[in-house]
Amino acid sequence: MSDNKNDKKEIRVWCDGCYDMVHFGHANSLRQAKALGDVLIVGVHTDEEISKHKGPPVFTQEERYKMVRAIKWVDQVVEGAPYVTTLETLDKYQCDFCVHGDDITVTADGIDTYHLVKEAGRYREVPRTAGVSTTDLVGRMLLLTREHFKRGDKEYSVALDHSSNLGTDSTARSPYTGCSQFLPTTQKIIQFSSGLSPKPTDKVVYVAGAFDLFHVGHLDFLEAANAQGDFLIVGLHTDLEVNRYKGSNYPIMNLHERVLSVLACKYVHEVVIGAPYSVTAELMDHFKVQVVCHGLTPISTDADGSDPYKVPKQRGCFKTLNSGNSMTTEDIVQRIIRHRLEFEVRNTRKEQKELSLVKSLEKNHIKQNGDCHVKNDSS
């Protein structure tokens, strides 16, 4: 009998979903799923399927396929995966089992989308990431809230005071659509981090920004920046700094959330949390930065009116990159605002279906317990 580890059967894991407005909650569930096996296959639903069962997605299917492919734990993406997960799908991609979060996903008819794989014993569950959902992010945009900002003595606290049919905290009516507290920990950052340091021969590239509501525009820019060297460092500005140069209620995602969203991207090696707005000589020397990149979006001056890229320009290592994608966070917010009523209806429908399924499960549980008592009494 061989002791060779290569003889061990490869465990293939299946996940599927809408992956609309991909955020660190999605990434965390995929990270947990990958940890249960060796290869992670992710099925992504079409716009048509999502619209039928859930309501209109914010991102197109092509955008969603691209976003999921860029998550560092994903090995393969299956486009147009069926909304109800079947054994045929698992078998087709040689997957041992399916993994999903401990929230409830239902079809337009209120049926659990995982009932077939659950009945066959080919289903595993991972904890849903507390503190974030697409529903919550949509609510922040439409309600123009600022409670998610981290400032002063509240920097490490979580305040989610608003709630509505969009929104979005533990007081929301549905236990799954509703959003509980997100508590950042060093452990969570470690789980998302690559843990790598640049080798002495690596060409280090630095970019900085808000990277708010991480989207395909960011993704294409980071892919282009990654191609400029061997080790990509992303500097993330604080919430108050982002609000200074973007105004309104930006950033939509707070610093802790943005850190995890960027770390989940396969093109990123390291993140500077709360990076200075101006790229300083100290920062460049400390990280041995050889190239500093910025996209085609306008560059705001620093608070004192100075050019934040003055030092890298003086050193002759500043590059303007054209990623070929002009999408901005503002574009996404405008998409949401244009379809506000549709999203409100979508979230209400989702909430109602989840609650009716919860009641049905509770009813069946009570009935089963009742049947057990009858059997025990008659024996």
UniProtKB/TrEMBL annotation:
One of its GO terms (cellular component) is cytoplasm. Residues 14-138, 207-301 form the Cytidyltransferase-like domain. One of its GO terms (biological process) is phosphatidylethanolamine biosynthetic process. Keywords: Lipid biosynthesis, Lipid metabolism, Nucleotidyltransferase, Phospholipid biosynthesis, Phospholipid metabolism, Transferase. GO terms for molecular function: ethanolamine-phosphate cytidylyltransferase activity. Its EC number is 2.7.7.14. Pathway: Phospholipid metabolism; phosphatidylethanolamine biosynthesis; phosphatidylethanolamine from ethanolamine: step 2/3; Lipid metabolism. It comes from the Eukaryota. It is an enzyme of class 2 (transferase). Pfam families: CTP_transf_like. InterPro entries: CCT (IPR041723), Cyt_trans-like (IPR004821), Ect1/PCYT2 (IPR044608), Rossmann-like_a/b/a_fold (IPR014729). Belongs to the cytidylyltransferase family. This is ethanolamine-phosphate cytidylyltransferase. It comes from Papilio machaon. The lineage of its organism: Eukaryota, Metazoa, Ecdysozoa, Arthropoda, Hexapoda.
